[in-house]
Design brief:
Distance between the termini: 49 Å
CATH topology of the largest domain: Rossmann fold
Number of domains: 2
Oligomer: single chain
CATH architecture of the largest domain: 3-Layer(aba) Sandwich
Radius of gyration: 23 Å
Shape: elongated
Strand order of the largest sheet: 3-2-1-4-5-6-7-8
Number of helices: 12
CATH superfamily of the largest domain: NAD(P)-binding Rossmann-like Domain
Helix content: 40-55%
Length: about 300
């Protein structure tokens, strides 16, 4: 395994996350070249010791390991297009959002230009980059991961290769990421309800954290039920959640908080009951979420 502090690295895209990645490499002693469409964003990194390339082609040519941190796979290909001929023989690692199909398309594009490809995802906020427990996962060319694993671990100590299929990181990114917005909106709804009583949202943080810890403890149980297709052991049944829908309606009336975002969730629970899952574990919602295979 290579990837000591002498490994040159290029970081393309200097938004908040990209800048954090580049800073981590600079602080770890890697010769770091950076490029961004808005060159001024490179100034703090240059002050720390990074090299700034005026053209993306020069940035790609500067290092054997090229890491992009742009918004989407489309943005990544668009930014790299002028440097496509310079990708040959280099390791390209994408750290952006996007669908599995976008990852496959970008992998084919990169490999078609002679690059070795690895797609990845940073599962934390920019300020956590470089921490021992920060999770990053990758998929694609395992030889790239093995060659640069030590270098990649500069970005986070919990670094995982999911497999050779180029789209696995994007698949897990979207699968895990689906948890975020509903959880946050639930917290925001609770905060609005608390404030409706003249209380501070901060007063619920400790209790919300405990609640999230409890939910975390249930995930292995629910995953096992889903993998086994056995929902009979219902500690929390679908019917129980359906009964709770009325409480949400009452809260909305009492606090004047808009809970309309919950309507599709309540509908999902009702459909599960109609499908015969009323007395089953709430994890049986997975069966309702699955679309039936199309008839031939």
């Amino acid at each position: 395994m290579t990837g000591n502090s002498s490994t040159p690295v290029t970081v393309i895209g200097l938004g908040s996350m990209g800048a954090a990645l580049a800073e981590a490499f600079v602080k770890a002693g890697h010769p770091t070249t950076v490029w961004n469409r808005t060159a001024a964003k490179a100034a703090p990194l240059i002050a720390m010791g990074a090299e700034h390339a005026d053209a993306v082609k020069d940035a790609v040519a500067a290092s054997p390991l090229v890491i992009t941190c742009l918004t989407t796979f489309d943005d990544t290909r668009l930014a790299l297009e002028p440097a496509a001929t310079s990708l040959h023989g280099r390791a390209l690692v994408t750290l952006n959002s996007g669908s599995p199909s976008g990852a496959r398309e970008t992998a084919a594009w990169a490999i078609g230009h002679g690059a070795r490809f690895l797609a990845g995802a940073v599962k934390n906020v920019p300020s956590a980059v470089g921490a021992p427990d920060t999770l990053l996962y990758y998929s694609g060319d395992k030889t790239v991961f093995e060659e640069f694993e030590t270098t990649l671990k500069v970005l986070g100590g919990d670094t995982v290769h999911l497999g050779e299929e180029s789209d696995l990181a994007a698949l897990y990114e979207m699968a895990v990421g689906a948890i975020l917005l509903p959880a946050l909106v639930g917290f925001f709804q609770g905060a609005a309800a608390i404030q409706a009583r003249g209380l501070e949202a901060g007063s619920m943080v400790r209790f919300a954290g405990k609640w999230l810890d409890m939910i975390k403890s249930l995930l292995p149980i629910y995953a096992k039920e889903i993998d086994n297709g056995d929902y009979a052991d219902a500690a929390s049944s679908v019917n129980l959640f359906l009964a709770g829908a009325a409480h949400d309606h009452d809260l909305a009336k009492e606090t004047n908080v808009d809970t309309a975002w919950l309507a599709p969730l309540h509908d999902l629970v009702r459909r599960a009951v109609e499908a015969g899952h009323g007395d089953h574990s709430i994890s049986a919602l997975t069966e309702v979420l699955r679309k039936p295979a199309r008839q031939a």
